[in-house]
Prior knowledge:
The structure is a single chain. Helix 1 crosses helix 17 and helix 12 runs parallel beside helix 13. Strands 10, 13, 14, 15, 17, 18 and 19 form a seven-stranded antiparallel sheet that branches. Helix content is 22%, strand content 30%. Helix 6 links the parallel strand 8 and strand 9. The two termini are 19 Å apart. It is an alpha+beta fold. The chain has five domains: 44 residues; 109 residues, Rossmann fold (3-Layer(aba) Sandwich); 202 residues, Distorted Sandwich (Hnrnp arginine n-methyltransferase1), CATH 2.70.160.11; 133 residues, 3-Layer(aba) Sandwich (Rossmann fold), CATH 3.40.50; 132 residues, Hnrnp arginine n-methyltransferase1 (Distorted Sandwich), CATH 2.70.160.11. The site of S-adenosylmethionine has 20 residues, from helix 2 and helix 4. Keywords: Methyltransferase, Repeat, S-adenosyl-L-methionine, Transferase.
Amino acid sequence: xxxxxxxxxxxxxxxxxxxxxxxxxxxxxxxxxxxxxxxxxxxxxxxxxxxxxxxxxxxxxxxxxxxxxxxxxxxxxxxxxxxxxxxxxxxxxxxxxxxxxxxxxxxxxxxxxxxxxxxxxxxxxxxxxxxxxxxxxxxxxxxxxxxxxxxxxxxxxxxxxxxxxxxxxxxxxxxxxxxxxxxxxxxxxxxxxxxxxxxxxxxxxxxxxxxxxxxxxxxxxxxxxxxxxxxxxxxxxxxxxxxxxxxxxxxxxxxxxxxxxxxxxxxxxxxxxxxxxxxxxxxxxxxxxxxxxxxxxxxxxxxxxxxxxxxxxxxxxxxxxxxxxxxxxxxxxxxxxxxxxxxxxxxxxxxxxxxxxxxxxxxxxxxxxxxxxxxxxxxxxxxxxxxxxxxxxxxxxxxxxxxxxxxxxxxxxxxxxxxxxxxxxxxxxxxxxxxxxxxxxxxxxxxxxxxxxxxxxxxxxxxxxxxxxxxxxxxxxxxxxxxxxxxxxxxxxxxxxxxxxxxxxxxxxxxxxxxxxxxxxxxxxxxxxxxxxxxxxxxxxxxxxxxxxxxxxxxxxxxxxxxxxxxxxxxxxxxxxxxxxxxxxxxxxxxxxxxxxxxxxxxxxxxxxxxxxxxxxxxxxxxxxxxxxxxxxxxxxxxxxxxxxxxxxxxxxxxxxxxxxxxxxxxxxxxxxxxxxxxxxxxxxxxxxxxxxxxxxxxxxxxxxxxxxxxxxxxxxxxxx
Length: 721
Ligand SMILES: C[S@@+](CC[C@H](N)C(=O)[O-])C[C@H]1O[C@@H](n2cnc3c(N)ncnc32)[C@H](O)[C@@H]1O
């Protein structure tokens, strides 16, 4: 198995075509290199955007979702048989057919006619070929959005059975409300049935200081507990963004949250109803209190009844609220699977956290709370109250303090992370002493921790913040805490030479808004290289002084499925789909992708190994490294390689390391506990058999911003031969 990673990633496609040259299949796309910070034009295949869209469509994961596939098929068989028994002809419409899978199921289940429509052209073309390969060419395929179908032109008659899978984690985020309204008005008969027939949405009110960390900024205290930085009022009073935070809720450590209520049903969406859907979009639900506490957030999920009688149910509940947990426990064959992972795994529908705009402190004597549940055409939001709220329309809240609209949830969480902050602060407390006239330069976006150096008594703090909102946010913290001698610059080049010459310390966390993979933050090194072209003090201290990239071969319980071929789904051959995705992935996907690994359990197959070590005092040095890792037979199949960065705050001081990888010691054969406030890198091997050894090569050319890895797995039989 061979893989290569290039750090250049697609950013924004501008695509001026090169005409007159013999480059008919090429265009230029603007790409930005996160390590050098440079943007440039790169020649790309003409179909690059198309490949990117295909590769990222995420169909694979949904087609690996056996529960979804089986239940759709079961509901189709049952409904079509019932309709025929009632003497009806069955005319099926499949909206958003994708691979054509549901249309083929309907045909095989005995529908008289099947019409399928698909708006995404590459997918529609692929569906046409898949239908032919599965002897299902009778399915009439319309290459259009359902809302553009013209009755009498595209369809000869209205359908009396609609099958569709247009749902997302939020249920309605893909526009299901509008699509169903249109279908009932224009495309379906009066008595049409729908699969799924209904959806019920659930909310559970929760207290969780861990999850709240993803939403608001805490105080920053020094090692003795004295407060160094307080968040300004604007931040404390901000309602935050209403947007959902989609999460694999079952993976939250069970001691990290407290459910204050049982799950409550908040909305029912009836897909079969003829009248326009869900006109009443706000509902105050009275929920009984189970425990006292601070109502900070809402856990949300949904359940669908696929058939009209409500016998074929599919729930997206986390394990503790899953209606089939006991049954799944009794039938699970794998006794090594943790309880939280007994419920069917899927990444295309997760659960969501909604942060309440104003947390409500509840006593048991309150007995219940009122949850105001609201939605529009595409999304939901919530408010909690002790008393029945007025019927006044609740507006969707938005960020007014810059924090939520500037930073991702994981970055906000990282800014609050105690252990990480302590390590950086213990360095700053040692390094910065008020009587020593120290001059500190802060690099990185939103380097609030670095501002502690001003609170600790640095003579001056110079902060480079190119991003306007991030600068405004950090400036508000500076003003609120009355920090002295802090100056902001947009660019490094604007800092006067004499100010640079006085610097005693350069500090970063390091974090940059453009970073996706952990080592994208090596941009810190590029900035140091630029500074080293100026007259700097020889005593200048750089922190972090270095960074190391580590690799760990792992066996994922489930995550590898997002990139694994589907091959066959419920007896239908989908190899043509696999080929299309594979081809597009080769054109457009980086072979290492960023994933929040705490949400995706994996077992370590060995101890990790260092692939690269960079020294920020000498960042320009090119490196080519190689090595290998022996894999233990007993521990499992290497279906992924996890990669992360450890930042060395001070040279050769093992205690002053901040890791973006495992948060506990790795034990081969056991599950890895990952940092929950950063995404790690993952390379999927697509291996399904045990391997004996992993060979790796790393090439790092910092001046070009090039970092590439190659991984080769040797199969077991080579070792055994
Ligand atoms: C979640 S996928 C489901 C694919 C397939 N039905 C399945 O179950 O595997 C949804 C598909 O619907 C398509 N789609 C979404 N809205 C549509 C619409 N209004 N008309 C036609 N296609 C639509 C998308 O392009 C996508 O291919």
